[in-house]
Recover the amino acids of this structure.
C-alpha cells in the first residue's frame, strides 16, 4: 500500500509540470495588458514600459515561465500586480471560506443522495424510484447560478429570513454565519446530489443482482442486514470516485456561486484576477485548483483499498 502511494505521488510531478506549462500559456493568451490596467488609461508610454520591466512582462514568454517556475519551487508565488500583496497570502486568506462551503455542500449532497439512491435501488420502478429519477434530471438541468438567484429571491427578498450575500465571522455570530452558509452550500450540494444519487442507485442495483446476495436472502438474512453489511459496502467504489471528483470541484472554488453570493473564496478571487489581468494571482489560483484535483484524486485511489480489502492486497 505504501509503495503504491509513493508511486502515485511521484507520478503527479510530471503531470503538474505539464499542466503548469498549459496554465501559463493559456493565461497569457487572455486579451489585455496588465501594465495598462495597473497604470490606468492616462498612462504614458514611458510609464507602461517601466511597469512591464518591473514585473518582467517585457521578457520573452518562455523566460517569464522559467522565472515563474523557479519562484514556485522556492516557495514564492509572486506578488499581485494591483495591490503588491503576496499571492500566497491572498490565496491563504480565501482557502478557509472555500473549504467551508465545499464541505457543507458535500454533506448536503450526501444527506440528500444516499436516502434517495437507496430508496430507488431497493424498490426499482416504485414511486421512490420515479421521484429520484425526476429529482436527478431536474437538478442536472437547472444551472447552479439560476438556483442560487432563485433562493436569494425567495429566502432573502421575499421572506427575508436569510442574508442575501456575504460571509460573517463565525466567532462574531455563529447563527448568522450558518444562515449565510446555507444558500451557497445548498446550491452546490444539489449539484453533488444529482450526480451521486444516479451512481449510487446504479451501483446498488448491480450489486443486489449478484448471486451471493440472492444466496444471503435465501438463507433468511433480513433485507436491512443484506443492504447494510453486504450491498452498500460493495457499491461504494464508484460512489467514492464521484465523491472525490465532486470534492475536487468544490474545493477548487465554485466560481459562479461564490461570485454571485459574494462569498470570499478562491473562486471569487479567480474572477477578480481575470477581470484585472493579474497574471501572478491568476496563475497561482489555477495551479492551486489543478493540484487540488490531483490530490483529491490520489486520496480517492488510496481510499479504494480501505473500502475493499481485495484492492488493498493488490496495491
Amino acid at each position: 500500500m505504501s509503495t503504491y502511494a509513493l508511486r502515485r505521488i511521484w507520478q503527479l510531478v510530471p503531470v503538474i509540470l505539464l499542466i503548469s506549462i498549459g496554465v501559463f500559456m493559456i493565461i497569457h493568451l487572455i486579451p489585455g495588458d496588465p501594465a495598462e490596467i495597473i497604470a490606468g488609461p492616462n498612462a504614458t508610454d514611458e510609464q507602461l514600459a517601466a511597469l512591464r520591466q518591473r514585473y518582467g512582462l517585457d521578457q520573452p514568454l518562455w523566460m517569464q515561465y522559467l522565472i515563474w517556475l523557479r519562484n514556485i519551487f522556492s516557495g514564492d508565488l509572486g506578488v499581485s500586480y494591483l495591490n503588491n500583496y503576496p499571492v500566497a497570502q491572498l490565496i491563504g486568506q480565501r482557502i478557509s471560506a472555500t473549504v467551508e462551503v465545499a464541505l457543507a455542500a458535500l454533506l448536503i449532497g450526501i444527506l440528500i443522495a444516499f436516502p434517495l439512491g437507496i430508496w430507488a435501488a431497493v424498490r426499482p420502478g416504485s414511486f421512490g424510484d420515479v421521484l429520484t429519477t425526476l429529482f436527478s434530471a431536474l437538478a442536472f438541468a437547472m444551472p447552479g447560478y439560476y438556483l442560487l438567484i432563485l433562493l436569494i429571491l425567495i429566502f432573502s427578498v421575499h421572506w427575508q429570513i436569510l442574508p442575501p450575500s456575504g460571509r460573517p465571522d463565525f466567532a462574531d455570530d455563529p447563527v448568522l454565519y450558518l444562515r449565510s452558509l446555507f444558500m451557497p452550500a445548498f446550491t452546490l450540494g444539489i449539484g453533488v446530489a444529482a450526480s451521486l444519487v444516479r451512481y449510487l442507485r446504479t451501483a446498488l442495483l448491480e450489486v443486489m443482482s449478484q448471486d451471493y446476495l440472492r444466496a444471503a436472502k435465501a438463507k433468511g438474512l433480513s433485507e436491512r442486514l443484506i443492504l447494510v453489511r453486504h450491498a452498500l459496502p460493495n457499491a461504494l467504489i464508484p460512489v467514492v470516485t464521484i465523491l472525490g471528483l465532486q470534492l475536487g470541484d468544490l474545493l477548487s472554488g465554485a466560481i459562479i456561486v461564490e461570485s454571485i453570493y459574494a462569498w470570499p473564496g478562491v473562486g471569487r478571487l479567480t474572477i477578480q484576477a481575470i477581470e484585472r489581468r493579474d497574471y501572478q494571482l491568476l496563475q497561482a489560483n489555477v495551479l492551486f485548483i489543478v493540484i487540488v484535483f490531483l490530490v483529491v484524486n490520489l486520496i480517492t485511489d488510496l481510499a479504494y483499498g480501505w473500502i475493499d480489502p481485495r484492492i488493498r492486497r493488490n496495491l
